[in-house]
């Protein structure tokens, strides 16, 4: 049995659109060890675009750590979870491009998505807020 990762991801925008950032963590599912924390300065964008960026950067880092690992993405954005799971259509062109980028990165890998309550996503939220406060990316 191969390795499994949990990616916790979040994004936010102050103004919507406004100053936007995302945060993600890569966690070893077996041990709970945090393997990576990624804060991404998105620039001026919507909350939804920032959420997608958090998901993307978390998956990108998980793949870099172990390209064969199963990945389980946990987010408090029902929109991103439902769109990436194929249950909701993606109408906005910016989000469609980000979803296509994510699907290209995922390829044939085992990646699943789960919606979680906002209170359960505090770590990724804190990283996203730090990226917005700093106005720069870190941990990439």
TrEMBL record:
GO terms for molecular function: nucleic acid binding; RNA-directed DNA polymerase activity; RNA-DNA hybrid ribonuclease activity. CDD domains: RNase_HI_like. Residues 12-21 have a biased composition (Gly residues). The keyword Transferase applies. The keyword Cell cycle does not apply. Keywords: Nucleotidyltransferase, RNA-directed DNA polymerase, Transferase. Residues 1-22 are annotated as: Disordered. InterPro entries: RNaseH-like_sf, RNaseH_domain, RNaseH_sf. Residues 1-140 form the RNase H type-1 domain. This is Reverse transcriptase-like protein. The lineage of its organism: Bacteria, Bacillati, Actinomycetota, Actinomycetes, Micrococcales.
């Amino acid at each position: 049995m191969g390795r499994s990762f949990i990616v916790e991801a979040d994004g936010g925008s102050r103004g919507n659109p406004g100053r936007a950032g995302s945060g993600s963590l890569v966690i070893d599912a077996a041990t709970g060890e945090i393997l990576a924390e990624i804060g991404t300065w998105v620039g001026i964008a919507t909350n939804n675009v920032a959420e997608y960026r958090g998901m993307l950067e978390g998956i990108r880092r998980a793949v870099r750590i172990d390209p064969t690992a199963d990945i389980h993405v946990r987010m408090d954005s029902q929109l991103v979870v439902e769109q990436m799971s194929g249950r909701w259509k993606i109408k906005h062109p910016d989000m469609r491009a980000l979803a296509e980028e994510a699907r290209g990165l995922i390829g044939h890998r085992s990646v699943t998505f789960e919606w979680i309550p906002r209170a359960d996503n505090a770590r990724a939220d804190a990283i996203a807020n730090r990226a917005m406060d700093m106005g720069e990316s870190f941990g990439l």
